[in-house]
Batch of 3 targets.
Target 1
Amino acid sequence: MTQPTILLADDEPHITHVVARKLNKLGITTLIAEDGEIAYQLVVEHGPDAIVTDLQMPYMSGIELAEKLQRNAELSQIPVILLSARGYAVAEQASNLPNIRHILSKPFSTRELVQYLLVLIDEDGALGLSA
Amino acid sequence: MKIQLTPKTHPSTPAAFLQRAENLGLLSWALDLNGMPSDDPIASAPIALWLSSKRIRSLFTERATLWAAMDSFEQEEILPGMWIFPYIELHRNRRTGYRVLIGFTDKILASEWLENPEDPNQLQAAALRQLLKEHIFSKQAHAAQTYEMFDWAMSDLRKQDKFDETIDGFSDQLGNAYETITALHDLGMSMSSINDVDGFINRTIEHVVETLEYEWAGCLINEQHPIGQMLDLSLIQAGTQTLPKEDINFVIDRVLTEVPAAFADRTKIYSAGDHIELLSPQMLVHPIEKNGESFGYIVVGGKRGEDPQVSSHETKMLDAVAGILSAFLINAAMFHEQHQTFVGTVKAMSSAIDAKDRYTQGHSERVAMVSAMIAAQLGQSEEAVELIRISGLVHDVGKIGVPESVLCKPGRLTDEEFALIKLHPTIGYDILKDIPSLSSILPGVLHHHEKWDGSGYPGGLVGENIPLMARIMAIADTFDAMSSNRAYRTGMPREKVLAEIERCAGTQFDPDLVPHFMALDLSRYDEMVKHHAAQSVFKKSA
């Protein structure tokens, strides 16, 4: 079994650091992107099992990233969790994008985020992560 | 399959440093305190074999004897053209061995140390020279400066490792603190749902399990304590398993008699002996108190996560959670007691009214029941149904102000007498209007004799101007009045009563409500009638 990989995209390094640390402790590999462009490149190169992205990032926002992924049949299957300081304001835009599976308002509970991720990357239950 | 945690090691030589040194052609070798290799040298096989030869190894064991007394080392040209850069390996500030970087200058290629006396053609030496060419990191003349640069890199990387560790520590602490705040915030927000005591306790201990990363948490309230009695509480638990109550009681007993509280907090930690098989070697027990006296305990066991030790982060969170639980339970118990007093008072009032007229024995209770049934049939909320029940109980309280001679008069009433009877809704309203907790039921009391067509009293209200509560009670009141024996007549049979109510839909009663009443199963009503009749017989004979 290959280790699950999760891409974390946020221009605030402390956010990605805290989340990555928690995921790494669970044996999950993390990729870190500081902006939307890099995030998209990493998705294309590595095909992660799930993506956690901030809304506001340089070059490409989290919504734009999700839109771009949604247009690609293969990449549109990767579930996305959107982080936002204004979750309520993006709910409508995000509702048109089926790949955005959750929206969490910052500050968010890392534990909650990790729980969502474990369910998303293990939807068929094969990894036994979300038990 | 569960993903296993990768154990984290803290080597004092940063991995990044070794990687960089290797990129520059240096070899690295881990030695123990005696200078004996604790690992194979990181080098290609022929070089590794050569380094591991007795001749070369003895050079290192000799050095180790000297290093034992030294705190810092200089680089040393251990053989012509072979430089070693030794670093102390530390674990928790104790020296555990050495990490030696080995670098070659061009001078090594001419060294006779490469030659093996047992190999007449020196083929091995030729092969070694070929390999070592790729490891020359510096000209002999620059070896010292190059080492200097290594040293900077080493100390910088060590510092960076320390910083990384610090940031990781901060991240963890911050993460924990945020989870705790989130949990306490959620508990604070749900404290107002005072009616769902079990739900709140569940929520609390689930937060403990999730946030503190434990397998199991339970809340045991002393059933003998007034709070436990009032709220009918015992053991509520959350987590991956269910524990027998005796085990929890055992742990609490032991903890209370044997274990001193941990320093500066009230959490007690029970370490399981042979007495009992517990889910984890350590169980935490924290009291839930009222005025310094405990009436329950939060018990937690089965620590998850990397650190098996109980930390003060956990005991502090337990302290906060126990405080919130205590405040909630004390409040809930007070609320329940108040509600019971309230309901008891209302019941006493309705019994007092019914006692005035033995013919109407139990009338208020029956009107309360039928009104509540209609409201429930309409799909009204639990609270609304409860309100209408209370309104039914006290709807005739104004009859206290009507002379008994009129109330119990057999036969027809004069106009003057009927005028007195018609005062009772207003009198009832006046009696109750100053009780704040009854304000929402006043419309039912005041208007239960209004009629849909406006011919009722006291207001002569028409249609939907009559409060819904009163429209419902009007049906229940008339139904029970027609069904029961009165001073001036005996009760009517059921079919006749129902036909009458249906006939009066749209004149006396709200035509939309009547079908809801007709749909009721009246067996509970009939049981209550029998019950009241039995009480009445008992009273007469007593």
Note: The domain at 357-541 of chain B is CATH 1.10.3210.10 (Hypothetical protein af1432).
Target 2
Amino acid sequence: MQDLTDLYQSVILDHNRRPRNYRVLPQANRVGHGDNPLCGDKVTVYVQLEGDRIAGISFQGSGCAISQASASLMTVNLKGKTIAEAEVIAADMHKLITTGAVDEGNLSDLAALAGVHQFPARIKCATLSWHAALNAIKGEATAATTEKPED
Amino acid sequence: MDRFLSRSPVASGREREGDENDFPMNKAWANLRDDFPVLHQQVNGHPLVYLDNAATSHKPRCVINALAQFYERDNANVHRGIHALSNRATAAYEAARERSARFLGAASAHEIIFTAGTTDSINLVACSWGGANLGRGDVILLTEMEHHSNMVPWQLLARRTGARLRYVPVLGDEGRLDLSQLDRVLTPEVKLFAFTHVSNTLGVINPITELCARARACGAVTVVDAAQSAGHLPIDVGALGCDFLALSGHKMCGPTGIGILYGRQALLDAMPPWRGGGSMISNVEYFESRWAPAPQKFEAGTPNIADAIALGRAMDYLDDLGRDAIARHDEKLATLAYARLKAEVPGIRLLGPAEHRSGVISFDLPGVHAHDVVTFADQEGVALRGGHHCNQPLMRKLGLASTSRASFYLYNTEDEIERLIAALRKIQRFFAG
């Protein structure tokens, strides 16, 4: 399983086993949904925006270890950030997940997802919750779906 | 039964212990894996163990050669051709139709319509027969285990015609139909009853002869989805008494993009066409046309000539092995795999019956999502499928988001069950760690 330890790093296994911020956020004023119709994965991201700052963020859903860990790591890393900062992190993450490229600095433990790009079938698992979070922040009513051309 | 009398060890060449009487194989089974070029490769450093046969089967060399030979020697468009190649192509295409009629026990080749596959076949019935015969107040009866391809076309038809859908319930994880409910749901308003022969998720084999008889007694037309059974079990539409039967070539050693709709002649004769174009007409005027008789009425445009011919070759291959013997081989592997998975993989939740089943086994490993299972197994060279298997409503009913699925076919071996179990144990250790 040498190759798979790239994909399933201990950070990912830990967040899969004990997902952080896995709950409904009662004070949320934004909600974003994501679903992957091909595999049935679903995620709901709850965001509490105060001005342009993410004061609280949580998620619920079902999916594989990659999708759960990615969502969990996301909530930890986006909490307290401004919308602009969150969008930069999300863009860096998209690049990381699809190419494995790690920009110096601001991804920290999120870099655990760098191995995903070697498994093309699993990229959508990692990006789903991020699409849902961006939808929530932008206040879009529609569900994020993995079946969009930009993926 | 003559073809089963000659006994030889199964494909792996290993002698079996004391089971020759219940598992006789003819000589076509010897070295059968050599017939499938794709099986002989390494995946991620391990010999490939292909257990995704419910999605698609592999193709024996004779089928691949039939495709190549058609394009190298006989390629031409069929029907109305005068030249030599067109005559050869037409003869081979129509011979494949005759072969298909024999394969299914149809009364005549006129009852065989070539389609793109099971989905296409079911849509044909829904559009043509359904559009002409269903209306408000009528009921389409399905079962809760249907593949989306035997569900969504009927939903579309119901929306168009005002007919309603109704379902025969499935009983728990074992996945049998609740036949005690049949009297309740199979009422005189039911005009059509569509059901699968073998479930692609549960591996259960439905009592389709009984279902056809009950539907007939009620005056309902029957549609059998044989996608998971046509290459695995003997089928005789005459003995079965169904009105329509749909199958896909690629799940039975044939090419992708070709399938069959069997339809009872009297029904086909009365049905309107569903697609217009060349080949399906007898006379065309500027403002109206007359149709050719079935099956041409339902085959507008240039058909899938090469794949139909290769499908006929696949039927030869399956019948050389014997569909009875294939069924016994599938059941033996699936029963063994079910018992061993249950005994050797702690906590595993298995779907479908323990015995008297097809080669499809779905399972859930607690705490490990199906997509993680499939990714790990792939690293061990074991090809599985994970997801909802085009069975979303059934998954919801069983309280599952997705399952992993191993599906066996004629070239699989007991050694491959060993590899499957070893991979699953390794996955459990990894995620428990």
Note: The CA atoms of residues 106 and 371 of chain B lie 41 Å apart.
Target 3
Amino acid sequence: MSVTVEQPDTTKRRPPGRGRSRHEGVGRLAAYLVSPSLLVLGLVIGYPIVSALRLSFVKSIEGIDPDTGLITRTSAFSLENYTNIFKGDTGAVFWNAFWNTTTFTVVTVVIETTIGVCMALIMNKAFRGRGLVRASILVPWAIPTAISALLWRWIFAADGVANDVLHANVLWTTEGFQAWLAVVIADTWKTAPFIGLLVLAGMQVIPAEVYEAAKVDGASGWRTFWRITLPLVKPALVVAVLFRMLDVLRMFDLPFVLIGPHKASVETLSILSWYEMNNLRFGPAAAYSTVLFIYVAVVAYVFVRVLGADIVGRGIERSR
Amino acid sequence: MSRTAGTSVTETGRSEAAAGGVGKRRRWRNSPLYYVGVAAIVVYCLAPFYWMVVSALRRPSDQFSNSLLPAPPSLDNLKAAFSSGNGFGRALLNSVIVAGTTTVLTLILGISAAYALARLDFRGKGLILSIIIAMSMFPGIAVVVPLLQLFTDIEWINSYQAMIVPSMSFALPLAIWLLTAFFKQMPFELEEAAKIDGCTPGQAFRKVIMPLAAPGVFTTAILVFIAAWNEFIIAVSVVNKNEMKTANVIVSQFTGQYRFDQPFGTQMSAGVVVTIPLVIAVLLFQRRIVEGLTAGGVK
């Protein structure tokens, strides 16, 4: 933040003519440096998005050619992939996936944030064993989601340790609320520490004097937390929550491996789209993924607007 | 001070403690509640992982025992995981190739873009950075559906490039963002000095910035590699031949050799094998990883 203050303003010192050519040179260099990345991103994201959008409006019609008797496949542009989403049996499947995606997002993010903030509060005090805590908190994050899904599938097996500990006999990985709960538990385990880590980073830049002042004013610990820690940690927390939300909205591998593909109780929009694609129904698959994409974009936009998550600013701010 | 603000979480914590608030902290630290809290975090994070390791080391015959230690321990599950029918060894190699290539390519592109975004003065910087960050928010499935069709047309199904190229869709925004943050932390006087000594911007980058940015690049490499190693949705979609599957995919698709429908013991031992490199990386580079995660705030 103090860096630019010391930075000499070079444009003023240079003669005008030279400054201009220098500036153009820098612009060209920047273009050379940035364009390969933009090209790749355009290829692996831009092209697929546009292509998916086009695909989602294509309806392939199978028919029999009256002259030859062969099966023909014609495709035409239509809105049918979208209108089909919302009505009839496919409508029920879609709304179920939409509901699962939404409930997963709301429930896991709320639980994860609560646990994450508690972890950060403890870690903020931690001196002895700080290294151990930090290493262990990174372990759930580092385990591939597919592997952690298998691990929880094993824990939640009929004769598994979860039933043993709970003295219960729940068939966790079969269709039903328990499958939904199993996914929530597994996701919480994996990502609450991640939120804790980000919140901790936010907590550690709060100056100790602020807490001192609160203490002098006779604020209780609870009040200090609500009035000082939480507001000051809010920027870090908001960004962490936003990233988690965007991540859960597109959740795929955890329910896919833990419970299975095409299971109504845990089917998310990503899995639904994948299932359609795997059955070569590309049009509906693209329509589902486009709806999901719009859903993610809307959530991100509202979140940034309402809570003022400053994502880009965090990157740029450092230069000032 | 401002340069290191985001980098060293621990140092700030320590100096803060030295500066003030020691009394309160110490009291808290000595209270049993504090130890309970720390123990709770460690148990919460490690217990399921411990269970994976224990299950991997059990004999297949007492796989369903729920004792806390494998008695007697055995490597049978591990041998079963590597048995030729599973193709797990090959899958590990595939994972290394895919994640490794993705990391290298991403770093080459990411470093140049991030350098320009962080340290060169040109118009549209904020916009480009916003676009790149927005791109990391796309759901993977939205990319996979059309790419699968494209790859079918150009016969890329069951190839490494079919996994590497789409992987860059999430790896590149992550890398550019992290590297931009790292490059920005370096003092701008460096290039000024290099320019005064007669360096072109390109030389200033190669001879002054890059050597100093090496730690940040290394951190980015770890995070990108871990993200690529953990990738699932692309790998499960564009490959259907066992020899080309990555470790994550093949382990989730192990079929039973024992009497139970799912070979949990084999899967757990294979899972341990897939996870161990990451856990070692985490233990060795924990400080760097935390630094990268908190600088980027991305998964």
Note: Confidence is low (pLDDT under 50) at residues 1-19, 314-320 of chain A.
